[in-house]
């Protein structure tokens, strides 16, 4: 009744092609953006920042990045953790080599460096696909983690092999280091998330995204209609790695402040991001956000309810958490194999007709 | 069902209600994941000691203790979540039991003004209180451990290690890499060859490392392992018939849970330790009387007297004594984290004070100061007796090479101070 297209007339092509064609969607989008940008910064505290919002925002960028590669271009990758590590180490090297340069520039540059590395490891995708490609990217995962552990230059020869983010500012506000203000860090990440989502959305509905999807749906057919697989696949690897690299750089510099490559960017991270993409919905920007929220926020919520609310022992709660999250993953995938985004799409379809279905 | 939920919720609010006036000690524990076998006994000991103080003395200095347990799973992201969740509750001291989380928290606790005590783990150079005023790592550090192990081997070999080959099997993380700097220095000094063999997290796969040991035949193997890695390493050593008495683990690789799975084969395995083993202490009577007999033992209650349970007790004892000292200095029982720091900084462990606590001869004596947060740097060698199923103390506390370690600590901490623009304290 409320959610409908009727009466929402479009008189130009531009209006017809916009991201949110339904007025209610548009309003909701701008309302969420306004709350996120204008309200949340005033109420945010350290706990909400470090335990809830930062991981959610950063993983959302990583999930969007992987979604471009796996969801839109159909190339399975198990190297996300390693590409995040490339972003983190690139950011670290840049931060320590050029301390006077703005941190935002370092993070974008780390994205570009990761894009280069991603394209390099994307080369095998020109010959192999599917599970075989997954194995090739798995090689990237292990090789890069090994490299960052092995070559002391990457961690500036520190005794522990850890990298630590020094304090860096943006326009006078501290963004990295321990003495940051929650709102500044939050807004910094929010800008990256909104910009990434905007770029991803528009890339995927333009010529480039259509080429990726053509490759995903059937690469031979795509080649016959004139899509260059080399360009399409490598650009997907490049763009995907760019966003994954940005998320890795933020993950290290803004969120954790100190990382150890094997622990923070191991194979588990690759699977975590892949699960986000699968649960959220392959080939959907909204799905990346939903997947990240599901995998990041649900455990925190469960922990707070079980331990904080009900006072259960921590180990019992931790085990239950695994069981509940695992059970929900299976439940959602049975109910809707195409992920949460598809669930949302179906809900919207139903809402359009409600209360008068055919 | 509804009623039980309401009672539970009510119970939770009642339990959480008066927490503000209490002394809050967060316990960042891990009872799940690949490191749980080692995390559980430590967390149990930590919890039981505070429970005992609450029951027996009504807390510390009349203030009840509120211990908040938070599960980290040895994962840094969850560790950060736990830190942020508990710091608002007035946490007095953090003991994360993870070198990775320690590195994560050092800048945060320094900025937030909450002390952190890393009992024989964490960042070794944090023992320099001038650079790390909020971090304490007494009674011994990893570099002490490395030095003590080499000193012991020197003793065994008539004071000469030249031409020997010593392998270091280590957890490939900040934790495992800690001793490398000291061991490299020592290898130059004493002329032995150091063979570095990293094992990746979580450490279930060590075939290639032990194959290399079998091929290279090092005279001794030193291990920096944790969790499931310890069990696997000891089993692999048994499999390749490596002489167990040539194999020395750091204090985190020397608990019952590490050696038991290898059965008889593990007999003779050695490990460092900076506190006593077994349950032969007066404190244990109090624990029995006030905690266990009432059915309030933490966890499953089956870890009493094990090495890591004792270490949990030790960690809790130092936290409690630090708080007591702080109350004494500041003349108030409701202490703040900043007062707690002063207490930890002026903490002194003597034979008498330990005996008073019912822990006579439990650990090395040490006294902290503004500059020295690292303790006396002494550790003993223990040996596993598989047939009796217990650790035997082989040596007295061995003093590490203080001169070398002081120099290394100075170098590393000053580099940190410069990198982070830290003004030196204690001036």
Automatic annotation (TrEMBL), chain A:
The chain crosses the membrane at residues 27-44, 50-69, 76-95, 101-123, 130-148, 183-200, 236-259, 271-302, 322-344. GO terms for cellular component: plasma membrane. It is found in: Cell membrane. The keyword Protein biosynthesis does not apply. The keyword Membrane applies. GO terms for molecular function: branched-chain amino acid transmembrane transporter activity. It is a multi-pass membrane protein. Its main location: membrane. Keywords: Cell membrane, Membrane, Transmembrane, Transmembrane helix. InterPro entries: ABC_transp_permease, LivM-like. Pfam families: BPD_transp_2. This is Amino acid/amide ABC transporter membrane protein 2, HAAT family (TC 3.A.1.4.-). It comes from Palleronia pelagia.
TrEMBL record, chain B:
It comes from the Bacteria. InterPro entries: Leu-bd, Peripla_BP_I. CDD domains: PBP1_ABC_ligand_binding-like. Belongs to the leucine-binding protein family. SUPFAM superfamilies: Periplasmic binding protein-like I (SSF53822). Keywords: Signal. Transmembrane segments: none annotated. It holds the Pfam family Peripla_BP_6. Residues 25-385 form the Leucine-binding protein domain. Residues 1-21 form the signal peptide. PANTHER family: BLR6548 PROTEIN. This is Amino acid/amide ABC transporter substrate-binding protein, HAAT family. It comes from Palleronia pelagia.
